[in-house]
C-alpha cells in the first residue's frame, strides 16, 4: 500500500493521540492516594513529548500485522520508561535542568523527593502494564519476552548504564567509539526495544523480518541520539523546548563536539541509510518505518 | 516435621547465605562497564541486611513444597527492590541519611547521581531476573503472576506510594488509620509479596492455603513496620545499625509516637497473633513461618 507523502504526519498525530489516551488510562488518577505522587507522574508523562518510541511500536505493528490495540501496553510502557529517565536525568544531582519540553522539569514543578518517587513509580508501572494489559497478547511467553526486552533495554546494559557512562564522561575526553557505545545504551536501546517489543507481540513474524527490524531499530536509535546532539549545537531553543548549547556548557563529549558537525551529519545520514537497508526484507509493509527514519534524522526539534 | 527451637536461627543463616549467593550471581560484575554503577549496586545489596523478605520467600516455599532453587529469583528480586528503596529513601532530598546497616549510605559512599542510577538499575534488574531466571518455573503464566505481584507491591499502591505518604506526613499529625495505611504500603506490601510470590511459583497450592498465606503476609508486614518504629524509639543504635530517635527528630508520625509505646507493642503482638491464626489451614508445614513471625516481632534489630 502506497501512501501520500504527508501521511506520515497524519499517522504521527493519530498514534500520538492514541498513546496519550492509553497513558491517560494506565496512569493512576489524581483522585486516588497518594494524590501528589500521581499528579507528578501524570505531569511528567501527559501532554508533551514527541512520542517517538510509541509511534515506532505502532508503525512496527503496521509492518508485521499487529493491530494497535495490542500495542497500547508496550507503547505506553516504553514512554513511561522514557519519561521516568527524563525526570531522573533532570534532577540537580544529574543534569540539573529546569526546563523540559518547554515546561518546568518535574522536580521544579513539584519537589525533588516527589520527582524521584514519580520516576521510580513510572518505571515499575511500565512493568505492571506489560504484565497485566489484557489486550496485548494471549500468549504468556510472548508477554514475558516483551517484559524481558524492556527490562534489558532499561538496565545497566541499556539506558541506566548509558546515563552512568554519560555522567562519567562529562568533563572528560571520549573517543568516538566510546560515545557511540554510550549513545547506543542511553538512547538506542529503548528505541530498538520499541521496535523489538512490537515484533515480539506479533502472532507470527518470520525470523528474517524480526532480525531486519532489530537492525533497523539499532541503527535508528544511534542516529536519533546523534541528531539530538546536533540539535543541541545547531538547534533553535524554542523549537527544541529546552536550552541549546547545553552539552558544550556542561562539557559533555557528544558526537558533533568530538567529530565535528559535518561528520556528525554524515554519520546520522549513514545510519539512516543502514536502517533503511535493513528493512529490505519487509518490502512495502515497512514504508512508514522508512518515512519515520527520514523524519527522525531530518527533524528540527 | 518438628524442628528444635534453635533451628530457625540455622535456617535464617542458611537462607541468608543462599540469597547472598543468588544476588552475587544476578548482579552485574564490576569487571563489566559501567563499572562504578555496578560497584554501587553491589555495595548497596551485598554483605549486609537481614534478608527478611528473601527468607520469607524460602520459608513459604518450605510450607508449600517449592524447592529453594526455584525461589532464588523471587528472593533476590524482592531484595533488590528493597535495596533500591533504601538507596532512594536515604538520598538528601528524601530522608537524608548518612548511615545504613552500619555503613555509609550509597550516596555517601559514591555520589548522589550514582546512587539514583544504582537504585533505578536495581529496580529493573529485579524484573529482568523474574522474566529470565530459568530455574523459577516452566509455567509462563505463573512467572507473569510473580512479576505482577512484585510490580503492584512496588508501585504507588505499594512501596513507592507508601514512601510518598511518609514524606507527606512528616511534620503533620496523622491518625492511626493513616499510619497503618502508610505502613501497609511502604513496608507491608513488599513483605506480603515475598510470601505471595513464593506461593505463586508453587506448582499447586490449594486456594485456601494461598489465602491463608496472603493474610499471614499482610499481618506480618504491618507488624514488621510497627516493630521497626518501636526500635527507633527504644532500640540500641549499635544493634539497629543506624541512628535511633530519628523519627521523632524528623517529626515523623509513627505508630508508637501517635499511640504510645505500650499500644504499639500491643498492636504488634495482636498482628503477630493474626499472622499465626491465618496459618491454621497449613498446620505443621508452616511451623517455620510461625517461628519467623515471632522472631520478627521480638527482634531487637
Short description:
The structure is a homodimer of 301-residue chains. Chain A has 301 residues and is mostly helical. The first copy, chain A, has helices at residues 7-26, 35-45, 52-64, 72-90, 106-109, 112-132, 140-154, 159-169, 176-201, 207-234, 237-240, 246-249, 255-259, 261-278, 287-298; strands at 99-100, 103-104.
What does this structure look like?
The structure is a homodimer of 301-residue chains. Chain A has 301 residues and is an all-alpha fold. Chain A has a single domain (7-298), classed as Farnesyl Diphosphate Synthase (Orthogonal Bundle), CATH 1.10.600. Chain A has 15 helices and two strands. Chain A has helices spanning 7-26, 35-45, 52-64, 72-90, 106-109, 112-132, 140-154, 159-169, 176-201, 207-234, 237-240, 246-249, 255-259, 261-278, 287-298; strands at residues 99-100, 103-104. The first copy, chain A, has a two-stranded antiparallel sheet with strand order 1-2. In chain A, helix 2 (35-45) crosses helix 6 (112-132) and helix 3 runs antiparallel to helix 15. The longest helix of chain A has 28 residues, at 207-234. Chain A is globular and about 50 Å long. The two termini of chain A are 29 Å apart. At the A-B interface, helix 2, helix 6, helix 7 and helix 8 of A face helix 2, helix 6, helix 7 and helix 8 of B.
